[in-house]
């Protein structure tokens, strides 16, 4: 098969992959609608940053605690039914938000945020474990690139739609949009035709989770992916905490500049996903992951340090947009390696373990960013402290890329 027909066949020739991809775009768009709209509504309703922080915390904490369990369930249960069930439960779980009218009802918001946080751990490992059942192995890097790109499309569209919806129709409009997105996603995934797969070992969920940890201890490839995810997760936590201060205090921009900065980041991710999906894909996923991570780290290093010499905003937009290309390559290559690391019967467990490692270190990175930037602000100044702390993130990317290239060259033992 030539490369051109292969690229054409990935979408045109795979009805089920198209349905999975479209379902992911729609449901993730709904996620961004409700996360954006709810964040604005909660602050507008309560005037409390503490309430906003609690809502965010209870929604994200399940990723740390339950990520591995979600991966085990993706191996034990029928993945198609798991995805459909999660979408339907997420849709019904949002409906109590329609009752919220005053700050005394914030407990409803917290309960819904926890419910959606728990259920939202299920789709990612199940979908990623399902992709190799729907596309040929030769197309996995492209398929993973397109699947990763769907999250960037959802962020770009959903964040904008959430802001418009909460302004035009309040929380009711936000909730109904998200409920509709989950219902459509469930309908699309209910029609998936999934080939059979080897049965998972018959153990308790806890026993299979422990088996997954043992496999990580024995399997060098899984250990490398966990280490990679911990390093980059720490950096993502740092960047997430300091992106707004970087735009405001280092680049001298306002809220509109911050919105533009994030939008260009999403557009860069979309463009990067298209590049990776169209590229002939001859590079093995290991070298692709290492090389792309190093390029991403160098672009981030340039992004964080150029304001020390040049007082201009537009280079930041160029650099963060360009970073989308290696960023998409990283996502596609990493997912492809993870899909082959544990075998079909433990694929979901691998993704759950990696998700927990990422979520935990991202929270740690968020805390580290606040402490380190604060300490440095007192000695070298606020803006310089932000830059130095962000350079820790860039340095972590360079280390992760070099580690990957080095270990991937060694023979498996």
Automatic annotation (TrEMBL):
Membrane topology (UniProt): Multi-pass membrane protein
Please list the residue ranges annotated as the Major facilitator superfamily (MFS) profile domain: 16-412
Superkingdom of this protein's organism: Bacteria
InterPro entries assigned to the protein according to its UniProt record, in alphabetical order: MFS_dom (IPR020846), MFS_trans_sf (IPR036259), TM_effector (IPR010290)
Q: Which Pfam families match?
A: MFS_3
Record PROSITE patterns: MFS (PS50850)
| Location in the cell | Cell membrane
Report the transmembrane regions from the record. Answer: 20-43, 49-70, 82-100, 224-248, 260-279, 286-306, 312-338, 350-377, 383-408
UniProt keywords, alphabetically: Cell membrane, Membrane, Transmembrane, Transmembrane helix, Transport
Q: What is this protein called?
A: MFS transporter
What is the scientific name of the source organism?
Nonomuraea rosea
